[in-house]
Amino acid sequence: MADVMIAVMPFVGHVAPLAAVARAFFADGHAVRVYTGSAHAPVFAGLGAEIIPWTAAPDFDEHDLTPTFPALRGRKGPRQMLANVEHLFIRTAAPQSDDLVAAWAERPWDVIVADNLSLGARLASERTGSPWVTVAIVPLAIPSRELPPPSLGIPPARGPAGRLRDAALRRLLPLATRGMRSAYLEQRELCGLPVAERSFDDAWYSPDLVCASGVPELEYPRSDLPEQVVFVGALTTPPRATGELPAWWPELVEPAASVVHVTQGTLNVDPNDLIEPAMGALGRQDVTLVVTTGRADAPDLPFPVPPNARVAGLLPYGELLPHVDVMITNGGWGGVLAGLAHGIPLVIAGGDLDKPEIATRVAWAGAGVNLRTGTPSARRVLEGWRRVASTPSYRENARRIAASLAGHDGPAEVVAHTMGLLATRTGTGRNDEKP
């Protein structure tokens, strides 16, 4: 049995996959502690995990970030992405590591397993000398000498001019991210750590083991992918509703028309961004619209709902997606993988954070249409839906990716790879060198 510390950034999209990983560690007989925010602690406590709360680190409300992080006020698009990374993920890293080191002092763990945006886990690993496993719950953002900088939503170059463009962007990246790089050095200094041997770009990933959600079919070809990266498929479906299914649910079991699922995701859930234009686009089409607002406590919409639409806060994807023909999504990675796992072609309106990158990868893989904005017009949504619904190759490619995802049991593979790492470290599967 291993003593496992799981570090989870307190966002719904991070909690769902890491809860599945925690469940798999329990099933394999290991002891599990979880470090996360108070809003999501009950999820892991319900699994039997011991909770280590955010104490030194600021415990925040993911649906209202600006009271805790005022620098995020009024930002959207690329400016929001840069500000989010700096203030939410980097500038909380030192206090996160303080919380984790305090837990280590009470009872050392054998391994820390963390989502790849939990930078505090990396610093805690360095401070304690303990093994660290990264679970990449968003697409890999490991730089490559052969690709454009990650997270820009730019597909690989196809010719000499494109390769020159990518090289120029790689040179500009340190300038564009110098604020984040400076913040990272400050956090290391606060922890009493020296300047890192590995670059800031590599700081988010363990040098020993990276369990990447997804499959190679959604990863750009490259010859310099680090050898510690293993793809584990999907980790879980997005958060599901609890309680009874809506009264209109039987309409999906034997639908009278094609079913189109529209989801705003679970972060930045302004329904005017995607849900409203999707309803405007498809409200008069011969389809059944199944819409989720992303908030279980806020299932209603502030605008009229067309007769062919059915609305809920959250729905059980395991039961919904087998009935869906096309999915219109804001591009959250968990929802995208869930849709593709069911062979559903996608229309993606990815506006901020990692979503433009996800939309670009899905379009590159031929499994969906990238609307290239998080706030599309109704006409743009309609054109995207018509293209996906009428072109067989999108469904064929989605089914090809589904077959690849079906070959994985993501949470169990994370456990197996982690225990393999510990075995190579100690010869026993435990970290017997801890004090």
Automatic annotation (TrEMBL):
<dbReference type="InterPro" id="IPR010610">
    <property type="entry name" value="EryCIII-like_C"/>
</dbReference>
<protein>
    <submittedName>
        <fullName>Glycosyltransferase</fullName>
    </submittedName>
</protein>
<dbReference type="InterPro" id="IPR050426">
    <property type="entry name" value="Glycosyltransferase_28"/>
</dbReference>
<dbReference type="GO" id="GO:0016758">
    <property type="term" value="F:hexosyltransferase activity"/>
</dbReference>
<dbReference type="InterPro" id="IPR002213">
    <property type="entry name" value="UDP_glucos_trans"/>
</dbReference>
<feature type="domain" description="Erythromycin biosynthesis protein CIII-like C-terminal">
    <location>
        <begin position="279"/>
        <end position="418"/>
    </location>
</feature>
<dbReference type="GO" id="GO:0017000">
    <property type="term" value="P:antibiotic biosynthetic process"/>
</dbReference>
<keyword id="KW-0808">Transferase</keyword>
<dbReference type="GO" id="GO:0008194">
    <property type="term" value="F:UDP-glycosyltransferase activity"/>
</dbReference>
<dbReference type="Pfam" id="PF06722">
    <property type="entry name" value="EryCIII-like_C"/>
</dbReference>
